[in-house]
Design a protein that fits this description.
- With about 100 residues, this protein is mainly alpha-helical.
- It contains 5 helices and 2 strands.
- α3 (about 50-60) packs across α4 (about 65-75).
Length: about 100
């Protein structure tokens, strides 16, 4: 992590409401990854998901409307994998190792 993880974790709290839902997607990469780690923790790594199911989980974790942005970022940062046609999603095995410093 580029700076002390605790500093970003503390700052990230400002991006959440009282119901612990993300109000806006952070602009700084370390805080984005922290937010994505929090969202990915809602998924079950032992199963496959449809795009609709992925969208529902994301929607339940954010207040703003850009579900597609979060889904794309989760794919880009390798939290999730998917079939080329988007019909099936899964949790990538190595995300915890890759982002171990970000796990809250």
């Amino acid at each position: 992590m580029e700076k002390e993880p605790g500093l970003y974790k503390e700052k990230l709290k400002r991006y959440y409401n009282n119901e612990d839902k993300l109000l806006q997607y952070p602009s700084k990469k370390p805080m984005r990854i922290l937010a994505l780690v929090k969202i990915i923790s809602k998924f079950d790594s032992s199963r496959k998901y449809t795009e609709k199911e992925v969208n529902k989980i994301i929607k339940d974790e954010i207040v703003f409307c850009d579900i597609e942005l979060i889904r794309r970022e989760m794919y880009q940062y390798q939290f999730i994998g998917r079939l080329r046609d988007g019909s099936e999603y899964w949790i990538e095995d190595k995300w915890k190792e890759k982002y171990k410093d970000y796990i809250i």
